[in-house]
């Protein structure tokens, strides 16, 4: 099962990626979490010790040059678009609590269609992980489909657009759906997050167009306290029964598709 999580900034992508990762790890699955948001924060959310010491792939200059034939940041240089990546998961993944994590990092020249060696290496590695890994793969993405392409579309079983009760996040989800469909991703679904009342949920239902909502997460004091008290999502979910049930419902929905 491979899942990409996307949505507007601050909507709860990393939170949901982390909750799903913990939940699957707890039930005995091997989980591979990929942080492909340029502003990496998944390591901390997953409870990795010293997340600041994890070097993102985009900053491994020697490795990028070795694999692509060009230095990172180099524009206009020739570089390999299909670098060797098969051995990279073992080399660069970190492990904590049954969860493996690979942090991709930011690509300075950003934007879709970025042609630089680090972006080529990240894309090739994500492609490899999506096509070859037999783990539960969860990708925490920025708002968009960068790093995914037509060749990986079939391997993404679900793309989850996280929405909150606000038009901006809903508009972002609709835009993501269009982009995702353009590259051939089929199952684009939504998770409604930070729900404080039934009106919040109704608001999302009213404005979200043709994207199935597979579950919702209430606004949770224990999630809000994560930043405040520097705890992680595993601890938060253990202390909040409603949250636990809501995560379970999302997982059950995802698992209805036997992949
Ligand atoms: N259900 C929730 N209840 C309360 N707070 C929440 C909930 N979901 C997320 N948050 C809080 O909202 C903030 C943003 O969440 P998170 O970092 O997961 O979003 P994101 O989409 O990954 O953000 P970014 O775009 O910056 O990567 C965090 O402080 C998080 O603790
Ligand atoms: Mg995030």
Structure commentary:
- It is a single chain.
- It is built from eleven helices and eight strands.
- The chain is α/β, with parallel strands linked by helices.
- It has one domain (2-255): Rossmann fold.
- The chain has an eight-stranded mixed sheet with strand order 3-4-2-5-1-6-7-8, with helices on both faces.
- A hairpin with a 2-residue loop joins strand 3 and strand 4 (99-103).
- Helix 3 (61-68) packs across helix 5.
- The protein is globular, with a radius of gyration of 18 Å.
- The chain starts with a strand and ends with a helix.
Which percent bin holds the helix content?
A: 40-55%
Bound molecules: adenosine-5'-triphosphate, magnesium ion
Mean pLDDT: 92
Name of the CATH architecture? 3-Layer(aba) Sandwich
CATH class: Alpha Beta
Uncertain runs are none
How many E-type strands?
8
What is the strand arrangement across the widest sheet?
A: 3-4-2-5-1-6-7-8
The ordered string of helix (H) and strand (E) elements is EHEHHHEEHEHEHEHEHHH
CATH homology superfamily name: P-loop containing nucleotide triphosphate hydrolases
Largest sheet: 8 strands, mixed
Number of domains: 1
- Enter the CATH topology name: Rossmann fold
Distance linking N and C termini? 5 Å
Quickly count the helices.
11
- Rounded to the nearest angstrom, the radius of gyration is 18 Å
Overall morphology: globular
């Amino acid at each position: 099962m491979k899942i990409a999580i996307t949505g507007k900034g601050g909507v709860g992508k990393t939170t949901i990626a982390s909750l799903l990762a913990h939940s699957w790890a707890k039930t005995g699955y091997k989980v591979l979490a990929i942080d492909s948001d340029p502003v990496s924060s998944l390591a901390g959310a997953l409870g990795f010790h010293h997340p600041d010491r994890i070097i993102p792939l985009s900053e491994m200059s020697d490795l990028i040059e070795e694999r692509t034939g060009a230095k990172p940041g180099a524009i206009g240089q020739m570089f390999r678009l299909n670098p060797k990546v098969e051995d990279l998961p073992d080399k660069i993944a970190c492990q904590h609590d049954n969860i493996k994590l690979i942090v991709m990092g930011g690509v300075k020249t950003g934007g879709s269609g970025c042609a630089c060696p680090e972006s080529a290496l990240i894309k090739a590695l994500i492609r490899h992980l999506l096509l070859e890994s037999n783990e539960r793969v969860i990708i925490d993405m920025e708002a968009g489909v960068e790093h995914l392409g037509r060749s990986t579309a079939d391997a993404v079983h679900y793309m989850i657009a996280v929405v909150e009760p606000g038009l901006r996040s809903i508009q972002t989800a609709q835009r993501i759906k269009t982009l995702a469909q353009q590259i051939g991703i089929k199952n684009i679904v939504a998770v409604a997050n930070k729900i404080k009342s039934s009106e919040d949920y109704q608001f999302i239902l009213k404005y979200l167009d043709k994207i199935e909502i597979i579950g919702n997460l209430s606004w949770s004091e224990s999630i809000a306290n994560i930043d405040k008290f520097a705890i992680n999502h595993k601890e938060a979910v253990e202390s909040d029964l409603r949250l636990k049930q809501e995560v379970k419902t999302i997982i059950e929905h995802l698992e209805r598709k036997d992949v």
